[in-house]
Amino acid sequence: MKKQQFAVIGLGRFGSSLALELMDLGYEVLGVDRNEEVVNQMSNYLTYTVTADATDEEMLRSLGIRNFDCGIVAIGDDIQPSILATILLKELGIKTVVAKAISVLHGRALEKLGVDRIVYPERDMGIRVAHQLITPNLLDYIELSKDYSIVEMTVPAGLHGKILGDLNSRARFGCSVVALHKPSGCIVAPTAMDQLNENDIMVIIGSNDNIEQFEAAVNEE
Ligand code: ATP
Which residue has the higher pLDDT, 169 or 135? Predict the structure, then answer.
């Protein structure tokens, strides 16, 4: 199967780390930035790099942008080039367009252009860190909707050695442990007999209120 190809427009802190991670994951990445110095710094690490203005339609066309599976507009500070580059990627027919927004208004403008996914790295990281600070066991969380999330948390000391049946999370808190990461591997859909040990990570799904009650209760056990 052909590997997916990504075009990252703007190689600032967000764009460059995204591009490098995609390379690490084994995909092909074209990095475009108008700053030659930035492009030179990245040229050894990405599949292709080009110094160019992403608001130049002819240039994007000549790069064969439409053949890429996904284009990510990672220009943030200046909204105008971000919007223009997004319009061009959409018009040139790239299948999936992702764009970084720096404000709600910027995000709304991108939404109107039919962007497939809008990311707010600063806002999302702020929210993530706040959650991690108030819940010491929380490692990560994914917002499924406004009210529902999936969270990853370490097993608090009070639960070490207990089985999931003892925890009885569904009946007590209305949320479910859907996976257990153990040093030996991951158990998906664990049973009531699976044991919780010190270095395990629980993956829990539920409403935010229920997960909050779950976290508070298990940390006291
Ligand atoms: P980050 O937080 O990711 O560092 P930022 O939000 O500060 O980025 P910018 O500094 O505006 O965003 O842009 C990120 C990168 O995009 C920069 O390296 C910049 O040179 C590049 N860039 C900005 N406008 C264009 C453009 N029209 N064409 C190509 N690259 C661009």
Answer: 169
